[in-house]
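#struct-pred

JT: dropping the chains for the assembly here, can someone run the whole complex?
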Amino acid sequence: MSEAIAMTEHQPTHEVKGRMGMWWFLASEIMTFGGFIAIYVLYRMASGGAWSSMAEHVSTLMGTINTVVLLTSSLTIVKAYEAIDKQDRKSAQRFLLITLILAFAFLGVKAIEYATEISNGYTPLTGIFWSFYFVMTGLHGLHVVGGIVAIGALYIMAIRGTLWNGTQKRVEYIGLYWHFVDIVWIFLFPLLYLSY
Amino acid sequence: MSEHGNGHAEPTSFLRKYVFSIDHKVIGKQYLFLSLFMALFGGLMAYYMRWQLAWPETAIPGAGWIPEPMAFGGIIPPEFYNALITLHGTIMVFFVGMPLLLGALGNYLVPLMIGADDMAFPRLNMMSFWTITTASLVLMASFFVEGGAASAGWTGYAPLSADPIHTGVGWGLNLWIMALALEFTSFLMGGINFLTTVVTMRVPGMTMFRLPLMVWMQITAAVLFMLSVGPLIAGAILLLLDRTVGTGFFIPERGGDPLLWQHLFWFFGHPEVYVVLLPGLGAIMEILPVFTRRPIFGYKTIVYSTIVAGALSFLVWAHHMFVSGIDPQIVMPFSITTILISVPFAVIIFAFMASLWGGSIRFTTPMLFAIGTIVTFIIGGVTGIFNGSAPVDIFIHDTYFVVAHFHFTLFPDVFLGGFAALYFWFPKMFGKMMNETLGKVHFWWTTITFNMVFIPMFLIGAGGHMRRIYNPLQYDFLKPMQDINIFITWSAVALLVGQLVFIFNFFWSMYRGKKAEDNPWEATTLEWAAAPTPPPHGNFETVPTVYHGPYEYSCPGQETDWQPQHVEKGSVAA
Amino acid sequence: MSDTGHAHPNYVAIWGWLLLLLFISLGAVYLPFSQGVTVTFIFIVAAVKACIVATYFMHLKFEESLVRYIAIIPVILFVIMTLTLIPDIGTR
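RK: done, full complex below.
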């Protein structure tokens, strides 16, 4: 806490405020996703192994591909942040674009997965495992969409040359959000794809 | 104030200045009017419920306007009665308590008290107000959809709430869930804003232990809300899916567990009680030193007690569920934590009493309301011990004893504490003094009638009178207590009518009141001592520097008996 | 060189570690251990991955202590909540 107290010695910049606000937001997000994960784990414990037969039908391959995609997008956005930190505008712009492409790739794989599952007769109403599967991945997917909007806005600003002069700090806190989306997936992957 | 902070220019158009304003002071007032408006609805619902309980199934005076099928010529059917109990609770906690104490007081006071020119994210602030306004509209609209408004209680226990076949309520309950989700979003945005503001925007010299206690209470409340609401948001999404898509997360036949909803609700619900409670106590903490002319007793003790109480509030939730069929192993631990949590609150109350000791008390209206809050809140707190002890709770659970208990905690806090705060900060907000004589009449009338309403409820509760029942005359063992029910209803009518004094005083003073000086109460905190009345856009003419703690009253060797935070000791007050 | 006041670690190497951990947890599923052991193991690996992302990508390592508390306290809270509910919901 001592640093926080010392911060009053100088007037805060937008960067300090933005990062602090983003962390408080993430704290509430941790509790929301934590709630879902807690409910899922408790129900699965209570079911006594009856879900395993349902959980076998998810595609571990697709899940693995998406994990790699999301981990890599986390790398590219942190590289964009590093590039901005080093005043390297060109590579920052390039890394933002790669992140955007990877985010769309994630959604594409997810869409193929949903389509396959639903055409095989696994819908949210098939059983409680599938209800959880669609709700949790769906909510995570919505967060990915939100990330695409934010990163897309940053990329457009980069093309137009307005991402400098203070606003480039947004790459840092949009990045924090994007890493959080990645962390949620890091837990959803073993919860939904590996525990059968 | 372009030299510090956000540097947004003062708006000139009416729409930007009063409707879609990003000025924290305007937003605070918007929250104030929203909460007072919703309080009228909450009070009206209480009146209809009380009349039904005293004279069951008779035409209620003033209910003739309610269209069918909600009421039939002023007679309300059981379905509408259930909707009334649900919406009364929801409105009073989420749409009156929170907007008044966090939205209005927090928004108005936090930046002023720490010396900032506005909130950290002014646009987010505007958005949070319009989100809760939308939520209020959604909630009120739920009365008019087919099947009526939500009627599963303000706690919305599953499976009653999870499947429309149980209550016959269709979209009413879906809209209720959506209104709550919007309300949560609004206060999450608000909480992020408060916390970021306090962490990053304090003026030079304003260390954490020089913050006025109101600010401490606001940020603790924001942290509690932010950390507790997440699991309930998850639960609410699942509940909505159960109702609309047909999943079975809370429906036993489809593999769900209804008890989990109760856990999720109360994991949020108990910290939520303190989210509402702490800012109300914060107002008392600001008022006591000003009108006793001495520092508050035990500033750091109060801060640490608050933090301990906040942390403990995450570990007491199952005391709401002792008769819900939870595992007996977890009953005892939750009983113990519940009784433990009374310790930090007792410390705070004793600090209040010690603050009064030896002070030169000025019995103004805000001070009367502050003392009234402490006295009535003690009754609420002490009866909480009864509810928290599992063996006693099994007897009094779901009776009027519990109703009386939580009204004795929330009413003093939201209304008595809220009135104290309004009478105290009204001069700063509107630049006019409120009428003292009317204020004192309002105080005595409200406090006496409040006790006449809720002390008898302890009696009938101990006598076994169940809460949430439509017609007490259906039960033979309740018939002898019907006279008490009638007495409660007349007292409640008196309590509600007495509020007209406040409404008149509020609006009359706004236009005809005596003009307020910059610092009419001779207070030390920045909002009174350093900002003009009413504060202009940007709040302060120059950025103040803080030299000492917030409650330096009656310092020896000083010219005046109050020492503003931004004036160094030894120098002459400006 | 940089105006954030902290050095940038080798992010590509960290990404490599994350991928390695991912394939370790994938491989663990095919090892002949009981379900309980396997599940415990892959969740420990997931927690390690999350910690790496938070520490380096979200640069918690270089943050002030307040930010670390903001990140850690919710995690502790939801673990407490889950553990408390096991006797009531998990082993009903």
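JT: nice. Residues 14-47 of chain A form the longest helix (34 residues). Chain A has a mean pLDDT of 89.
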